[in-house]
TrEMBL record, chain A:
Keywords: Cell membrane, Membrane, Transmembrane, Transmembrane helix, Transport. Its main location: membrane. It comes from Tamaricihabitans halophyticus. It holds the Pfam family BPD_transp_1_N. It is found in: Cell membrane. Coiled coil: none annotated. Residues 1-22 are annotated as: Disordered. Signal peptide: none annotated. Residues 129-336 form the ABC transmembrane type-1 domain. It is a multi-pass membrane protein. The keyword Cell membrane applies. The chain crosses the membrane at residues 40-60, 131-156, 176-196, 216-234, 262-283, 303-336. This is Peptide/nickel transport system permease protein. Belongs to the binding-protein-dependent transport system permease family.
Automatic annotation (TrEMBL), chain B:
Signal peptide: none annotated. GO terms for biological process: transmembrane transport. It comes from the Bacteria. It is found in: Cell membrane. Keywords: Cell membrane, Membrane, Transmembrane, Transmembrane helix, Transport. The chain crosses the membrane at residues 33-53, 94-116, 128-149, 205-226, 261-285. This is Peptide/nickel transport system permease protein. Residues 92-282 form the ABC transmembrane type-1 domain. InterPro entries: BP-dependent_transpt_permease, MetI-like, MetI-like_sf. It is a multi-pass membrane protein. CDD domains: TM_PBP2. Belongs to the binding-protein-dependent transport system permease family. One of its GO terms (cellular component) is plasma membrane.
Amino acid sequence: MERGEVGAAHVTTPSVQPAGPALSRNTRRRAILGLIARRLAFAFPVCGVVLFGVFLLAALSPFDPLEQYYGVRLETASEQDMARVRAELGVDDPVLVQFGHWLGGLFSGDLGTSRSFRQPVAEVLAERLPWTVLLCAAGLLVAIVLSVTLGVLAAWRQGGWLDRVITSVGHALEGIPPFVLALVSIAVFALALGWLPVAGLTDAGAALSVGQVARHLVLPAVVLGISQSPWLVLHLRQSLLTALTEDHVTGARARGLSERMVVLRHALPTALLPLITLIGVRVPELVTGAVLVEEVFSWPGVAAAVVQAALAVDFPLLAMLTVLATAATLFGSLFADVTTALLDPRVATDG
Amino acid sequence: MAELPQDWLAAGRDRAGTPRGGQLGTRARLRTVVGLGGLVLLVLGAILLPWLGGLDQTNVDYSARFIAPGVAHPFGTDANGNDLLLRSFAGLRVSLLVAALCAVVSTVLGALFGALSGALGGWPDRLLMRLVDTVNAVPHLLLGIVIVALFRGNLWAVVASIALTHWTSVARIVRAEVLALRERPFIDAAISGGSSRIRVLRRHLLPAIVGQAAISAVLLLPHAVWHETALSFLGLGLPPHLASIGNILTDARQAVLLGSWWVVVFPALLLVLTTLATSGIAAGWRDRLVPRRRSELAL
């Protein structure tokens, strides 16, 4: 690894030296590619099992698709008519046959039709996914900036008043659900101070523009970021404290480097590595947070669609969103493992 | 050779990452005591206050709508003119009961699963653990929403939704514990004495993991409260006649837009206090059982 890559120079102080540099770099690259391939191969069966599990749950549920199909007209529908629709929807087929039909549809690119949005599922996803990605990316950015700043400050003065404030606020925030944070922030910044809009993607009737979206993005993104940050802050503080006791930090101190240099250039890179892993592993919590934040701020993303789909028992959409979230989780853990393996040559790539 | 500065001790104390003030051990003990005391107070309040105050949630009194916190109503009143102090504690009681039920169900489920997996070993173990990985790959709230959506409208849907998503962590912990126990001489002795796998599991392994399982149940409690609140907030949780803190917070959404901040703040405060108290107890307890993990306490 070349000097100058993200903190790599400081991370690589291994107790066991790798064999030859050229040879080890090639084997390393192959091992990481193997890790990615294995994980991807594992991801498909997992998504399949999740799909099947969700389908089984739907089959077990007392919910009647005919009722959904007919709505209030169920009272007046004739027996023959109902029998025809039953046969058309395949309600009476065995569960496995129904699953096969549905899966066949998925593979031929037909994701089904969403009942709650009265649109094909693929269209719903295409319209809403970009907004969720935007919100999650902005939220994650806020969370990372917050956690690195506060984590370093807390560890720098361990036990001081700043550390105590940061740690206890962090612990308290762990217990506050994101929607409470969202409601309070709406009350303060949108209603009392009137700085930012209450909800939505644009002002009522306004055209979609970068400025509008940016203004509406601030509150949801900051709330999402703050709700994700306590774990990151506390974790970074802890790993930085551990890093500060390591030999290379003692060495840096012994060479008379300034505190600033010691903490930011020698201890922090080692401590950032576990943070990357944590961010990758916490993707499910990010998704959960996005569901709640989008719901409160009426953000038109896929996460808010989960709630609408659930309230309307919109099975095709609900199943696709579940698989999408599963894929995001698996990707998060893959990202964490690959980044760690790339940055730290001591880490094994056994998966 | 450079001389050490006169105040080298003080200079050392100024180094980054040097702990100052307070013994860690004492602080952990303090946290346990404060947590336990706080939880007892909250539970007592949840049991006694709605009863003493004569709360009737079906009562609607529009003349007493949205009264700001004051002497007569310390937490203020909500959209129906109910006293929010009484209503929040009544909601807390529902939340705690549901959470305790969920924690127990998922702990039993997870402990049995983990013990079975650890005791069987080999390919059944690997298969069961893959299943745990798969369940974990779906974000918990999302899986919970799917379960509640498909079996809507009663308490058991919520319990199932929380129990079916939270047992995996218990299963992992218990399996690790069983794997460690399997190496111990008393298990070897039982096997050489001719005990069957099932008997070893029932007589020797399960009793040994009860402590771990109990900690897991306590640790799950705040998660279950959180999860239930989120479901109820989204309108997918408990039916309105079993109003939990989550249901109260749903009502609070409109109230906030009308400018009544107290309808959100006080119920949420109870929620946070409960979480903090429980995590304080759990951390202290774990600390006592596994002193080696003391450094992880801050997490």
